[in-house]
Amino acid sequence: MSRMTVNGRPVEYLMDEDTPLLWALRDASNLTGTKYGCGNGDCGACMVHVDGVALRACLITIAEAEGRFVTTIEGLSRDRSHPLQQAMVAEQAIQCGFCTPGIVMAAAALLADNPAPDEAAIKAAIPNICRCGVYPRLIRAVERAGRVARRQERVTAAPAPGVEAADAAREEPALTPPEA
């Protein structure tokens, strides 16, 4: 039995303690934004934050995550309004989308530590593999998200389905749901 906080909520997994965190998140918590890619830590598709650090969920067991704070792509922003998510859309840095959650999580950890990373820092902090090859656009998106976080720029990208554009671009969540 392993206990931790996942996306701000206490969770107790009644699974073998050697179960990779990836499978606990996907199978027991139905947080399927964390993707299974290679299973050996090479691709980064399963990247999550553990105590604010970007880690590959396929390489950490639930026993190792005991008592820690885990954030998945679902916990980064409920309505996809995080500056990085908006910048990824605005810079067209998403192709098939499979690797995107892991890339966003790696980049979000970088921006939390360094809101003005240069290209070398971005490349070093995001080891994820993208088979679609969005790397140049990815770098522009991370740089742009950093400017947004530093309030030097505002990004307006297509919002998630069901979210009004004006609400997605707000700096604070909307207080009332959009009218249908």
TrEMBL record:
PROSITE patterns, A to Z: 2FE2S_FER_1, 2FE2S_FER_2
Superkingdom, natural source: Bacteria
Molecular functions (GO terms): 2 iron, 2 sulfur cluster binding; metal ion binding; oxidoreductase activity
Chain positions covered by the region annotation Disordered: 153-180
Regions of compositional bias (Low complexity) in chain numbering: 155-166
Transmembrane segments: none
SUPFAM superfamilies: 2Fe-2S ferredoxin-like, CO dehydrogenase ISP C-domain like
Residue ranges occupied by any 2Fe-2S ferredoxin-type domain in the UniProt entry: 1-76
InterPro entries: 2Fe-2S-bd, 2Fe-2S-bd_dom_sf, 2Fe-2S_ferredoxin-like_sf, 2Fe-2S_ferredoxin-type, 2Fe2S_fd_BS, Beta-grasp_dom_sf, Diverse_Oxidoreductases
Alphabetized UniProt keyword annotations: 2Fe-2S, Iron, Iron-sulfur, Metal-binding, Oxidoreductase
Protein name in UniProt: 2Fe-2S iron-sulfur cluster binding domain-containing protein
Taxonomic classification: Bacteria, Pseudomonadati, Pseudomonadota, Alphaproteobacteria, Sphingomonadales
